[in-house]
Specification:
Length: 281
């Protein structure tokens, strides 16, 4: 087999590079001006060196910018996490302040009542769904008894109808099975407030000739000893005189916003002497 002959171009390139290296190194140790060949070589190679330097600089700048952006993004993520944590903490503080204000209002109401009372918190709705009622976080162990009235700073909420060791159920006055003996605060007309819907109660048994007008405040009468006397029940919304009926058709708006029940106050039922006890005395 014949061996391949080396290409003349390869030898020319090797000789040219060797010549360049010889010319550049021949002046080592001396400071001499470039000769014609050296200048030609520099003129040829310098643009490539300049281009290479620019490319390296661009690549270096890209990588530095890239890593800087990564660092900035990490710092932004850390700052966002810190801001979110501060927002959450701020929200907790606002909620604590709101709870404090609600319990402060209940405490002021408690101080104005001469009956034993107990603060509680609403933790849920009646799971059966048959009644408009709520569950509170106090029960027999904490001293809760049946028929204790449940109120807040706005007015009457309802009464305790079921009690377990640590929880109780409160029937709200907006339930149709609830009944509160009431007075028209201005005229002292009597009636019974019964539940109708979430936002409306009926004031029954007010005589046709009774003195009631829209805007009158309805308060508890204190009879039967369940609810203390004078607690707000609601405000008269509208009145209808039904021909042939003995009583007015009156709707009242409850004083309490039942969509925002949280902190409540339980008040012990007042002991009402029976007729036999009264005769004995």
């Amino acid at each position: 087999m014949k061996r391949k002959k080396n290409s003349p171009k390869l030898w020319i390139a090797v000789c040219f590079i060797g010549l360049i290296l010889f010319l550049l190194s021949s002046g080592s140790g001396k400071i001499t001006p470039w000769g014609p060949i050296a200048r030609s070589v520099i003129d040829i190679t310098a643009p490539f060196q300049n281009l290479t330097a620019k490319i390296c600089s661009a690549v270096e700048g890209f990588w530095l910018t890239y890593f800087h952006l990564i660092k900035v993004r990490e710092e932004n993520a850390q700052l966002k996490a810190s801001v979110d944590a501060l927002k959450l903490e701020n929200s907790r503080y606002r909620e604590m302040l709101s709870d404090y204000r609600r319990f402060e209002e209940l405490l002021q109401f408690k101080e104005s009542s001469d009956r034993p009372s107990l603060a509680a918190r609403v933790i849920g709705l009646d799971p059966t769904g048959w009644f408009k009622s709520v569950i509170i976080d106090k029960g027999e162990k904490q001293g809760v008894k049946l028929d204790m009235s449940v109120v807040n700073a706005d007015g009457i909420i309802g009464r305790v109808v079921s009690v377990s060791q640590n929880y109780s159920k409160v029937l709200l006055i907006i339930d149709q099975n609830s009944a509160v003996d009431c007075l028209v605060q201005r005229s002292r007309e009597r009636g019974i407030a019964v539940g109708l819907s979430t936002n409306i109660c009926k004031l029954n048994y007010v005589q046709e000739s009774g003195d009631v007008v829209v805007g009158d405040i309805i308060v508890s009468s204190g009879l039967a000893g369940v609810f203390p006397k004078g607690l707000p029940v609601g405000e008269v919304l509208d009145i209808k005189d039904v021909p042939g009926e003995l009583f007015k058709d009156i709707n009242i708006k409850p004083a309490v916003d039942f969509s925002r029940l949280e902190a409540v106050l339980l008040i012990a039922k007042e002991h009402v002497p029976s007729l036999d006890q009264t005769k004995t005395e």
